[in-house]
Design a protein that fits this description.
Layout lengths: L34 H10 L7 E5 L3 H4 L8 H9 L4 E4 L1 H7 L7 E5 L1 E2 L12 E2 L3 H6 L4 E6 L6 H18 L3 E5 L9 H14 L3 E4 L5 H7 L4 E4 L6 H13 L4 E4 L1 H4 L4 H14 L3 H12 L6
Parallel strand pairs: 1-2, 1-10, 2-3, 3-6, 6-7, 7-8, 8-9, 9-10
Antiparallel strand pairs: 4-5
Helix pairs in contact: 7-8, 9-11, 9-12, 11-12
The structure holds ribulose-5-phosphate.
Ribulose-5-phosphate (5RP) binds next to β10 and α10.
InterPro entries: Aldolase_TIM, DeoC/FbaB/LacD_aldolase, DeoC/FbaB_aldolase, FbaB-like
EC number: 4.1.2.-
Protein name: Autoinducer-2 (AI-2) aldolase
Length: 297
């Protein structure tokens, strides 16, 4: 193992140079996979734009019914049409999402903690790959706690998921966890996103940070950016815009959509940024137009 003391810090990310090994496939780093893996990735990442709007509503797996997600059966059908991919637990999806929607699924496959605990960093893969296959999942999502107490076990579980996913051509989405005490620096996200990619995941879900373009350039698979805590719609659209400009292949947004007073309008505005090149300002105007709310409201 390389001694970490005296290690030369990475600095030349050549952010302006596009990823060099994509062949003619639209998903970063996936050119060498087989048909099944590419088919599933194409259900998540729109082949026309190479990007995705994932709707995250997996919060209940450790938080119970949080604001906006009290009634999955009412909310999710309203929003599903505007998303490329639904990220949820098998319980939420089986019970509340009609299979006739035919949407791609990023199946939350790890758990182990609840908000009743101080330390949420101990998770394992709890969903059998057979069940992910039965649900026709387009990806399995595993949370990984780099730099936290549960690092070793969550890395092992992530690698288990990658092994099983490779066997059946189901992409694994590695989810970079950020705990209360965990730093959210560029250095942290460079480390965590790259580690997950090197473990073999096909997608990394992460958070936006300063110098995000360096993080995206150094990660050989697509990054999708989480929304985080609810902020003003204008700011959430700026987050989406900055992420896409910085090299993200999409967003995996939850609270900033379902906790908006106008979730249907908000997800459509996010999609304009992700797929249609709208700026955050244009997308916010579009949002106001849909809601007929004036900016002062
Ligand atoms: C947490 C998750 C959540 O799905 C994620 O945080 C996305 O939701 P939000 O946009 O509300 O942050 O993966 O592990």
């Amino acid at each position: 193992m390389v001694d970490k003391i005296g290690n030369k810090a990475a600095k030349d990310f050549s952010e302006e140079i596009v990823f060099a090994n994509n062949g003619n496939f639209h998903v970063k780093g996936a050119a060498n996979y087989d048909w099944g893996m590419k088919d599933r990735l194409s259900r998540i990442f729109n082949p026309k734009t190479g990007k995705t709007v994932m709707l995250a509503f997996d919060h209940g797996y450790f938080m119970g019914p949080t604001s906006g997600l009290e009634r999955l059966d009412i909310l999710i059908p309203k929003l599903a049409n505007y998303a490329d991919c639904l990220m949820g637990t098998r319980g939420a999806i089986r019970s509340s999402v009609p299979p006739s929607f035919n949407k791609s699924i990023a199946l939350r496959a790890s758990s182990g903690s609840s908000i009743l605990q101080e330390d949420l960093s101990h998770e394992s893969m709890v969903v059998d790959i057979d069940d992910a296959i039965k649900m026709n999942a387009s990806a399995i999502a595993i949370q990984t706690f780099i730099g936290a107490d549960g690092q070793k076990e969550t890395i092992e579980e992530l690698n288990k998921a990658v092994n099983l996913g490779s066997k059946y051509s189901i992409p694994t989405m590695g989810v970079v966890a950020v705990g209360k005490e965990m730093e959210r620096t560029t250095q942290f996200f460079l480390l965590a996103t790259r580690m997950l990619a090197e473990f073999g995941v096909q997608i990394v879900k992460t958070y936006y940070c300063d110098d995000f373009e360096k993080v995206a350039a150094a990660c050989p698979v697509p990054l999708v950016v989480a929304g985080g805590k609810k902020i003003h719609e204008k700011d959430a659209l700026a987050l989406a815009y900055n992420s896409i400009q910085g090299g993200a292949a999409g967003v995996d947004m939850g609270r900033n959509i379902f906790q908006s007073a106008y979730p249907e309008e908000m997800i459509q505005a996010v999609a304009k940024v992700v797929h249609e090149g709208y700026s955050d300002v244009e997308a916010y105007e579009f949002f106001l137009h849909l809601t007929k709310v004036s900016e002062e409201d």
